[in-house]
Target: Gag/pol
Amino acid sequence: MSQVTLTTCPLSCLMMEEISYTLEMDLLTKTPLLQVHSINGLFILNLNLNHSPQAFLSNRASTNVWHARLGHPSIATTLEVVNSNKLSCSRNKFSLCHDCAQAKAHVLPFSPSSSVSTSPLQIVHSDVWGPSPIVSSQGFRYYITFVDDYSKFTWIYFMKQKSEVSHIFSIFKAQVENLLDCTIKTLRTDGGTEYKPITNQFPQILHQTSCPYTPQQNGHAERKHRHIIELALANMSYASIPLKYWDEIFSSVVFLINRLPSNKFVPFTILFKKNPNYSILKILGCQCFPLTRPYNSHKLELRSLPCVFLGYSSSQKGYRCLDLQTNKVYISRNVTFDESIFPFKQNKQGLISSCDFVSAHSPIMPLQISSIQQAHQPSGPSQPTLEPTSQQPVTTAPLSSSSDQLLSPQINQTPISATRIPSAPVHPITTRTPAASSSDNTVLTTSSLPSSSNQPTPQQIDHTPSPADQLPPAPLHSMTTRTRDQTRKTRVFTDFVAHHASMETEPRTFNQANSLPAWRQAMAVELHALALNKTWTLVPPPANQKVLSSKWVYKIKRKPDGTIDRFKARLVANGFHQEEGVDFMETYSPVVRPTTIRVVLSIAMSSQWQIKQLDVQNAFLHGDLTETVYMAQPKGFVDPTFPNHVCLLHKSLYGLKQAPRAWFLKLSNALVSFGFKSSNYDPSLFISNHNGHKLFVLVYVDDIIVTGDDDKLVAECIEQLSTQFAVKDLGKLHYFLGIEAQFTTQGLLLTQSKYLADLLNRVNMINSKPVLTPMATGVTLSKDDGALFDDPHLYRSVIGALQYATLTRPDISFTVNKLSQFMHDPTLNHWTAAKRLLRYLCGTLKHGILIHSTSTNTIHAYSDADWAGSIDDRRSTSGFCVYLGRNLVSWCAKKQPTVSRSSTEAEYRSLALTCTEIKWLTYLLEELGIAMVSKPCLWCDNIGATFLASNPMFHARTKHIEIDYHFVREQVADNKLDVKFICSADQLSDVMTKPLPLPRFQFLRGKLNVQCGTLA
Model:
């Protein structure tokens, strides 16, 4: 407490005294300066002090303060500034600056490795390189190296995919351990996921991995990449070798690296305790002349041909020689070299050339294995070599050391591309091997050129990038002629073979077909049908009127088992000359939807109805034309009386733009006259309710399915159609639109075995190695993924054919949808993914969708979405499966048209897509007279989308969604649909949105009713 006497302030201040306090203010600004409370005339002053640190006794700043003042430099810089300028500093201990520790974190220096190996294979370093920007001539994109820490000896293996690492390591381990009689103790890698299976597969090996993003800890393998690539590029530049042969050069470079001193030590010498033989080495890319006499068809052919030396064979004692004319690689020990000529330089195929890009965009070709061994010859001097073509020294050097030609592991791999060329039979050949010129006898693996273990070696490898450019392999035996064989061969069998082959082949021209009786008969049958139908009348050629031409089209009609049913010749008008608005008006003609077919078949099977199949012969010829169309008389069947007349068409003809529509209108009018009604939800479905009996007719152009609850009405319907058209009753449903229908004890199995087999045969993959899933997990395809595929037409053709296969194979819907997104510019990676799908179908040819014979009339569906699954545009993929009772009748895998900002939005859009399908199915079933047991139920595994379908509680986050998507909520509010939550483990449509691992995929495939055709 202090007592203050109030006096007049000499300063410009105003003091105001109240009963309880006194206030002092600035006279000019009226700013309060002091406020003091008073009690009984005493003024109370608050003497609480601010206890923040103050330096009253010293004005010297600490080292940390100067560090902060100078902007957080290093400690040395801070002390240098303080000392050189004699700044006032307390010189106390410098403490760690946490801000600098966070902002200046960096890679610490690496100390030299202290571990020293004392024996081979004690430590093995490994790393994977790739993907290469250019696919190699043999289809490789990666390679893996193994470096022995003790000797620095290197092994290299080439791969098409990273997933081959564990398989290659198992082979490498078995061979080197057997050869060196010691085991691998430690494997050091960079910790890549491709090495993870090795840890579980070989627990006895210590697997050491480097820290994440620290490749320096795997320095031996990393530096080996640089060593290999630098030497390879130097050799390729020197000889102008195209980049597509990088695997050949890399293999040869590793062969050389193992024989070059490093720190005065040669890896080969350390490992085998002897010096390598350098006399066998030649300049890579130079011209060479391998002995090709075993391939000659007669004795007067040249015994060699100019080739390019690519390197040293990894599995034989021979040189690898590339024939630039046929793109074949010959492996031979009898080779003459001209090291002054480099053919690639003469052909101007340098490192960056069009040849490289063609290879990069070409499909990966398989290895073509044959033999090129020296023919048996008696003892004596070796065969004379060809005369040199240059004044420079030319040498001939057989490989005589087995240790210099190290054995390559034979890896059983199925080529990615199954395009094969049959090779000539390989006869046993006795080969004389000259005496070795060195004492090297050790054999060890240095590189991998995978080949099948049951195929002969040495090997002849086809580097041709396109099947169309491949030439037949040269014969491996001498030509056998009638003169040499002294026999007279009859022509009867060969004529029969030629005739049989021609009958199995569909003619391309009229002249080809006219030379065979079966096709002449087929054309006569077609003209007879046209005459009976009064398709045209012959009239003089009109003036100023277009006259269409025509052509014959030939097709072999086959039974479901693939055998020939009949030969069909079709006269087709060249409608591409027609002009819209003049020669035709409307062309649209509906066909029945696949979902409608499955719904009707599900109803028929659950109701035990009879299902009949019909075929209308020459269907398009029944359509009536409303336009005036003239056509020239068909080739080969010109009326001799009126050779200059033309055909005035009264009926539609195949090839005319309006022909499909004219036929459908004709058939539709006939069915309506029989008492049928066209469906409002599928115009190609015709419904009849006769005295309470149901009858359904499904129409797909000229293929018709008839079913109903009264067999007598079904028979009457077929009879009525027969009175109007040339209808062929095919009996019980068995083969419809390329779909085989197999009745089993469980129901009706729909498969496309023949269709898929024909597709696999067309791409030469019928004998390819099957895989268990249609798409590998972890594979992310994008539009810029890899080099462009050189045959986009083939890619589009295959994917288009696979889209039709999804009619009975819901298990491939997602994969086909994904691959269909790259039709414009497919890459090699997309083609590889397509071939994987074909390999999956190769192993599941007999699989199809089963329609159970016991089912209920209830609709339940599953909806799912893969949020932002596309890395190109971040759009999501919608997928749904709709069941009618136990039977899957509709499914879809579709990329969403817009980007979703959340998983809830993506799932909700998928719900909307599924809801439209359910609503359409509900209307269709009502029209068919099928009463629903309960309202449809839609299952979704996203809680947010489920709640959003019932109420607008998430409006703040979903107000940007289009209004039309909210009709899902309207359906729920009208009590026409239930949307319920289901856990992700039970979400059946998961298979429609993403690739899945094998157990999950097989589980969901079974839930989709996809089963094998061998059902009992």
Observations:
- The longest helix spans residues 903-928.
- The chain is about 25% helix and 20% strand.
- The longest strand covers residues 564-573.
- Residues 1-9, 349-501 have pLDDT under 50 and may be disordered.
